Amino acid sequence: MDEHSKTRYNSPLTDFREVSERMPVIAFFLGMSIIAACIFLGRSHVFYVAVFIFAFCITLFWRKAPRPWIFLASIVAATPIPLFRQQFASNLIFAAWFIVFNMKYLSKLPKWIYALTGLIIIGFFTSSINWLSGNIMGGILRQSAYFFNFGLAPLILIPMIYLRMKDSKNYEANMQGLLFCLIVPSTLILLAAKIFGHQANVWQASLHEAAGAEGYVQYLLGKVIIDFSRTGVGFILAVLICASTAITISQVKVRDRLIAGSCLISNIFMLLVTGSFGSMLAVFCGYAGMFYTQGRKVRITKVIASAAAVCFILLLIYGLSPSSTKEYLGKRFEHRVVNADTDRLTLWGRAFNYILENPTGVGLRYRVGDKVTSNPHNEYLVYIVSYGALGGLAYPFLVVGLLISFFRRRKRVINDPAALAVYLAGLSVTAAVAVNSMTDNVGVNRWYFNIMWSLIWYCYFCSLAGQSGVERAGATSNTAVAGATAPDLK
Fold first, then answer.
1. Considering only CA atoms, which of 315, 318, 344, 238 is closest in space to residue 284?
2. Entry pTM
3. DSSP conformation class of 410
4. Using one digit for the tens of pLDDT, what is the confidence trace for 41-75?
5. CA-to-CA distance for 474 and 490, rounded, in angstroms?
6. Using one digit for the tens of pLDDT, what is the confidence trace for 404-427?
7. CB–CB of 2/471 below 8 Å?
C-alpha cells in the first residue's frame, strides 16, 4: 500500500468527529474505575444510581465525540452483574441515554434488525399470558428487566452503541478499541478472580466431585461473584480467545500483538481449567472461519505460520497445566467423546415438549418443566421457550443473519492489517457463538452476554468502515481529513 493510500485509509470521515489522543485514554481509566468500584463496593443500589447519573452526564457531554464515549461504554459492559436481579447492565444504561439524546440514530440500524425486534416484542406480549399470573407487579418488573437485558440489548441497544463506528476510517484506533476496551477488561477480571478470588460455593461444588468440581466453581472477587461454571464462563472465554487470536496473528503493532497474545494465553488456560468441551468446539469453529478468510487476504505461508503458532500455544499451555487440570480434562473427554454422552439430546427433547405445551412462551427462564425442571443447555431453545415459537426465532435469526453478513463481506475487506484483524475477530466470534449456542446458554450472566454481543456489534460496524465498497462511496461523498493518526492507548 502506498503512502497516499495509507493516509486515505487512516483518515476519519467528516461526520465522525475525532478527538485528542488523551480522550480515549481518559475513557479507559473512567471505565476501569467503574469496574473497580463495583468489585470493591458491590452491586448496591447506591452504586447503581451513581452509574445511572454518571452515564447521563458523560453521554450528554460526549454524545458528539463517538470514540471516547463508545470506548467507555465498551469497558463498562464488563461490570459484573448477577442474572436474576431486576437491574440493567451498565453499558445498556449508556445506550438508553444515547437514544434519548440522539433519537435520529434509531432509523440508521440495519433494516433487518427491525423485523427481528418486532418478532421478539410480539413474543414478549404473547408470553405475558403465562408470566402475568400470580404476582402481577413482580412479574412485570422481572420480565421487563430480562427483556431489556436479553431481548432489546442484542437487537437495538448494543447496536446503537456501536452504530457510529461504521464511519470511522482510523482502523488502528478501531483495533485498539477492540483490544483495550473489550478484550483486556474482561480478561483481567476473569484472571483476577481465578488467582485472587475465594471460592464462594465450596459445598455445592463438592457435590459434583465425581464429575469434576472445577466445572461448578464460583469465585468471590471483592464483593462480587464471578461465575466460573463451565456452561457459564465457557461462552465468554471462547469469544475472548477468538478475538484475541485475530489480533495476535495480524500484522499490527508488536505491542498490541503481545498484549493480545497474553490475553489469548490467559483465556486458553482458563478454558482448559473449566473443561467446557462445547466452548472448545466453538473456538475451533471460530478458528476455521478465521484462517479460511485470512487465506483469502494474505499469502498461504502466513496462514500456515499463524495456525502453527496457535497450535503451539495450545499444546504448550496444556503441557504446562497442573496434573489436576489434565486429569479433569481426561474425565471430560471420556464423558463427552469416549462415552458419547447424550444428556444434551435428552435436555433438548424436554425443551421441545415444553414448547409444544406452551407455544406462546412463558417469559425468560432457563429452566423447563413444572415438577421436574432442567436447563435446556441451548440458547436457541431458551429463547423459543421464553418468547414462543414466533418471538423466540429472533435470536437464532440474529445469529445466522450476522454470520451470513460477515461471510459475504470477506471479499471486500481492505488490505489494512488493523481492519482485517477486527473483521477476523468479528467473524470468528460470531461463528463461535453460533456453535456454542447449540450446547450451552450464555444468559447465566449479563456481563458475559453483553461482552459477547458488544464484541460482535463492534466488529460488525467497524468492518463496514473497513471494506472497499464503503471506502469508494465515502471518497465520492465526503472529503477525508488527511494525516490523522490513531489514538495510542498506552
1. 238
2. 0.89
3. G
4. 876 677 888 889 999 999 999 888 899 999 999 99
5. 30
6. 999 888 878 778 899 999 999 999
7. no
